[in-house]
Design a protein that fits this description.
Number of domains: 2
Strand order of the largest sheet: 1-2
Shape: elongated
Helix content: 25-40%
Largest sheet: 2 strands, antiparallel
Structural class: mainly alpha
Number of helices: 5
Strand content: 5-15%
Number of strands: 2
Order of helices and strands: HHHEEHH
Radius of gyration: 29 Å
């Protein structure tokens, strides 16, 4: 596998700059998560090595932030949230209860996953016909001018 530098994709200081509410005392935990999430990104999107450094840094910080926010408070990372008055209802559905790493569809696209490429598939074997000596193929062209490729024998440029 190709080595991607810098690794991890962001430093702790760069991460803190992108998250003003970074929890106090979580430096060691965040440093480990930055390394783990960098490898996670490469495992999930091998094409990420070709993305720009700034794109990898931005996405890494978002992935780690989502992971750390999951257990930060009772209301962080909730998909839905309900509050009641009497008899004291409270509820919510967490989106990421275990703090797992995940990439959004937009992040995967930014890293280069799923890019479409054109390709061709040969459906017939190589031509076995005799071309005229003055056929364009004999002069380095990529097309036949004598018609032997479509008819099996020269039909144009009679000689």
């Amino acid at each position: 596998m190709v080595e991607v530098l810098p690794f991890p994709f962001a430093t702790l200081d760069e991460f803190k700059q992108r998250w003003p509410d970074f929890p106090a005392g979580a430096d060691a935990h965040a440093t480990i998560l930055l390394e783990d999430a960098s490898q996670f990104i490469l495992d999930m999107v091998p094409a990420a090595g070709g993305a720009t450094e700034s794109t990898r840094r931005r996405i890494l910080c978002q992935v780690v932030k989502r992971s750390m926010e999951a257990g930060a408070s009772d209301t962080a990372g909730l998909e839905s949230f309900q509050v009641g008055g009497g008899p004291f209802q409270f509820g919510g559905k967490p989106t990421n209860p275990n703090g797992d790493f995940y990439l959004t569809k937009q992040e995967k696209q930014a890293l280069g996953a799923g890019k479409q490429q054109a390709f061709g598939v040969p459906i017939a074997g190589p031509a076995t016909s005799e071309h005229r000596p003055w056929c364009n193929l004999n002069f380095g062209a990529t097309y036949c001018s004598c018609g032997a490729d479509i008819a099996g024998e020269p039909i144009y440029e009679a000689g």
